[in-house]
Amino acid sequence: MEVGFLGLGIMGKAMAINLLRNGFMVTVWNRTLSKCDELVEEGASVGETPAAVVKKCKYTVAMLSDPKAALSVVFDKDGVLDQICEGKGYIDMSTVDADTSSKISEAITKKGGRFLEAPVSGSKKPAEDGQLIILAAGEKAIYDEVIPAFDVLGKKSFFLGEVGNGARMKLVVNMVMGSMMNALSEGLTLADKSGLSQQTLLDVMDLGAIANPMFRLKGPAMIKGSYPPAFPLKHQQKDMRLALALGDENAVSMPIAAASNEAFKKARSLGLGDLDFSAVHEVFKCAGGSNEA
Amino acid sequence: MEVGFLGLGIMGKAMAINLLRNGFMVTVWNRTLSKCDELVEEGASVGETPAAVVKKCKYTVAMLSDPKAALSVVFDKDGVLDQICEGKGYIDMSTVDADTSSKISEAITKKGGRFLEAPVSGSKKPAEDGQLIILAAGEKAIYDEVIPAFDVLGKKSFFLGEVGNGARMKLVVNMVMGSMMNALSEGLTLADKSGLSQQTLLDVMDLGAIANPMFRLKGPAMIKGSYPPAFPLKHQQKDMRLALALGDENAVSMPIAAASNEAFKKARSLGLGDLDFSAVHEVFKCAGGSNEA
Amino acid sequence: MEVGFLGLGIMGKAMAINLLRNGFMVTVWNRTLSKCDELVEEGASVGETPAAVVKKCKYTVAMLSDPKAALSVVFDKDGVLDQICEGKGYIDMSTVDADTSSKISEAITKKGGRFLEAPVSGSKKPAEDGQLIILAAGEKAIYDEVIPAFDVLGKKSFFLGEVGNGARMKLVVNMVMGSMMNALSEGLTLADKSGLSQQTLLDVMDLGAIANPMFRLKGPAMIKGSYPPAFPLKHQQKDMRLALALGDENAVSMPIAAASNEAFKKARSLGLGDLDFSAVHEVFKCAGGSNEA
Amino acid sequence: MEVGFLGLGIMGKAMAINLLRNGFMVTVWNRTLSKCDELVEEGASVGETPAAVVKKCKYTVAMLSDPKAALSVVFDKDGVLDQICEGKGYIDMSTVDADTSSKISEAITKKGGRFLEAPVSGSKKPAEDGQLIILAAGEKAIYDEVIPAFDVLGKKSFFLGEVGNGARMKLVVNMVMGSMMNALSEGLTLADKSGLSQQTLLDVMDLGAIANPMFRLKGPAMIKGSYPPAFPLKHQQKDMRLALALGDENAVSMPIAAASNEAFKKARSLGLGDLDFSAVHEVFKCAGGSNEA
């Protein structure tokens, strides 16, 4: 099976490599073309532009960093729209808001192309291990056709109905995740300031009803103040913002997500936006302790 | 091994039964004595007062509903203090604040008694299954002696140092749990109002980094609006309050816990205090939708 | 002086009447044209379309309900852009976000027109009394020319520099106002549930450092549960949202505004969006009291 | 009229001086007795202990920093209880929680003494100017007798019924004030980061519905980062905490106050507890701005 692949950031690179290693022929493109070199070593071809990739491949997958990049790759000069046509499918796996997804869907289908949005849950490690969760929505037929690729990229895929639902589901999951990260950080901080061992807190939580892989994975690193970017904080904050905007549309009041979003914004203002989203811990723990009279 | 057991609420009853079924001789007491009948059928003896239980047993375990009850059982007429003396141990497994625990500890040790606080993490089901997590603090020697009982009641026990640390650790864990419950409720509500399947949201989350037993257990019931009390909401709110008070002492700012606490208070004001703490979901989902011009 | 006036909602109508009664010749337009009748009785002319008004008048003022309406009046068929040209000025007094204002500004100036944004602080009553506060930004020369009109509409006008700054200042003021309204509502509710007189609370506050006209005006009505719409809640919530978005752009963490926004959203979900923004009080006071065992 | 006066902190000193300058004979006491010197220069006598003051005076006023100090002055050795008896009145003007006030009231009345709680609204400046607002509760007869002193100390006094209501009213007012301070700080910060003049924001707000003395007084100093302690931040945070506890008792959900309380706690953790409560501004403004890739 031949697929195009647009976008070779942290996630996209890992995903494209997985496709290559599992027998797919992959033509890659990235804004900074030099990033394609490593993929070429793995056997990829390179397309000079998004349009060139679409021209060559029946299916093109995109994995871009934000709505702006997702729109740009489609609508700009030499973009996807230049070559998309009847018989060709475009699968956008970027995390974008439903509006962006709809805009892209309309443009693609107007040209006769086929569209599937398929944002993923999971960051660097699951991407590398082919263990992503894929939240697809749009044309059911193309979903069925690209299942072989999804089976390589993820451990499970869902088809969620109309375009926009993949984006929405992703935002809801990331919103819950963002609030949980803040809850963890508050817990670690309170333990520490109360004279308790943070590691014991992690051990206790890991045995009970709230045990979860994220606490297990991120907790020890947070204690050490280490935040290598698996899922950059600025992207987590963007997702919180988009989830809150979705709530706004539907008059859903979400005070915990709102408070968490403000903590992520505080982290951004402290210059932590490019670190892992667990770096929000610096917001909670930064204080030096009171010295009141 | 012979142990006394004070308090046969949801948790206490399950724990006392486990001790009986694992070969312990147990003398039980409960404020409403009729609640002892079921335990008698399992082979328990009954003590007329806390003092009578302590008089009879070398080790007495208590599992009471709140700080007030925990203090009352110790300090009231015919209470634990009447009979505690050198050689006798008192193990308070109630969830109370560190101050309450310290007060009890001082009174017991002043009489020559030995004290261990040992609050647990886990509610009805883990109590029944002997799968609690035990957070002990106080006298290390008595901790070592009662390990056989802890092995029956829980799957793991921790010794955390000075009296108060068990209480504090428990509060921190429950605070994180309370914030996670609110995050889950917001997620379910947002999914529903955005046209997504709540069950699919649970399925997606259960495959990823934030998968945890609580979401798996409580989520489906919350969708149905079913909240049989495993851990009553008013107790969860009490723990949030105590955790925030601990944060206050140590100047720890915890905006997510604070927002979660206000949601639990709202739930109490709606008359949901005696339901399971997952009933906070009613606060988030109750709205009927806007009908703006 | 002759001015056009687009938009005869609660605010616009009061403002247009003030201009008429102070000797201005006013040509009005409203989407529902029948709303113009009352103005005609006061001496106004009617324009069939925004374009017709602009064609007739050197200066055209707009007072529209939201960014969508503000854009529509300019960009739609028979809109302002059809007739704006060199020598003509367009003064948009609607409350919109800076992006919307910039879009309008660019379109107007591209056609050779002159642009001033001039959102106002103050609702129905100040509009009727000519006591608005005017937050102008854009072309300084046109600001100077329309000062006579501003003197009729408001008690004070500010020139704030580049286009967008008027919108931004308005949002900041309304954000603070929205948080204050929530703080008032919490105070009234706490007083009531604690057995204190809500009216005495208002009296005490009115004598001290936080005494302000809004508490004085809205407080007694809130106690009675009366919320006649001076500033509709859905518009206040929109402004909170836009202010938070402005904070998002600049990485400013604003937890109090965020919590207040969620309360306004809750009010919307309860169907209160068309009432006065003080109706957020129903969110705080609605609870019936706990009936815990 | 002769009165005793216990406690010569910022507030107490100003109040005692006012009494002296208005013809009252005042016997003062302070934990650090040297603080009495300045009052002696104004004509005061000094009592060696609270008991000595009460022995000498028919009415004794107390103005202490917190519940602990208020209790200590009454219950400790050589405290008020040693000498209070039939015919003597004790007027506690400290800001304490209702429980503390009730404890003191019971002890005083049990000895035959008469009790009035009378916390005040207003800080240093109003105390100096005799412009406090006095929130009295307890025995109505003693309230009527000490009106001449209240007329010197304040511009208005309220009698609010049973003991505890003065404390509760004070907390509610200070809670609203604390939330407003946070709202102001968010507004100033957002203005600044959005390229607007903070002083113009203050000017605009001062012309509209939310104009209030606190914004007028504190705003310009906050812009400069100047926070001379009129009302220390740690006391404001204590009042927020007590108000939230009052809400907890009555199942009142107050998310804005809760978020504000966390901001004040953050300020304490930054070592700002002894500065004016407006120093919470440092929490909001401290960020340096994001430097995201």
Automatic annotation (TrEMBL), chains A, B, C, D:
Pfam families: NAD_binding_11, NAD_binding_2. Residues 2-161 form the 6-phosphogluconate dehydrogenase NADP-binding domain. GO terms for cellular component: cytosol. InterPro entries: 3-OH-isobutyrate_DH-rel_CS, 6-PGluconate_DH-like_C_sf, 6PGD_dom2, 6PGDH_NADP-bd, HIBADH-like_NADP-bd, HIBADH-related, HIBADH-related_NP60_sf, NAD(P)-bd_dom_sf. The keyword NAD applies. Residues 164-282 form the 3-hydroxyisobutyrate dehydrogenase-like NAD-binding domain. It catalyses: glycolate + NADP(+) = glyoxylate + NADPH + H(+); 4-hydroxybutanoate + NADP(+) = succinate semialdehyde + NADPH + H(+). Keywords: NAD, NADP, Oxidoreductase, Stress response. The active site is at K170. It comes from the Eukaryota. Belongs to the HIBADH-related family. NP60 subfamily. PANTHER family: GLYOXYLATE_SUCCINIC SEMIALDEHYDE REDUCTASE 1, OXIDOREDUCTASE GLYR1-RELATED. Catalyzes the NADPH-dependent reduction of glyoxylate to glycolate as well as succinic semialdehyde (SSA) to gamma-hydroxybutyrate in vitro. May function in redox homeostasis and play a role in oxidative stress tolerance by detoxifying glyoxylate and SSA generated in glycolate metabolism and GABA metabolism, respectively. This is 6-phosphogluconate dehydrogenase NADP-binding domain-containing protein. It comes from Asparagus officinalis.
